[in-house]
Amino acid sequence: MNVTRALNNWRKYRQTISELGRMTNRELQDLGIDRADIRSVARASIAR
Predict the structure, then answer these.
(1) What is the pTM of this model?
(2) CA–CA dist 46, 48 (Å, integer)
(3) Where's the YjiS-like domain (predicted)?
């Protein structure tokens, strides 16, 4: 994995955590995400 790809993955991971973290519990529930699962969802977003 090159440095550029790693940096882009890290940015996408942090952005996903930030966006989901700003959501209310109700909004997360509507998406089927528990607040405790935010980091795993963010990790999955960069695995694609």
Answers:
(1) 0.85
(2) 5
(3) 4-39
pLDDT single digits (tens) 18-41? 999 999 999 999 999 999 999 999
- Return the ∠ at Cα 40 (arms to 10 and 26), rounded to 5°: 110
What phi, psi does 25 have (nearest 5°)?
A: -60, -35
Number of domains in the chain: 1
* Element containing residue 20 per DSSP (H, E): helix 3-21
Where does the pLDDT of residue 47 fall: very low under 50, low under 70, confident under 90, or very high at 90 and above? confident
Q: Is 23 exposed, middle or buried (0-12, 13-18, 19+ CB in 10 A)?
A: middle
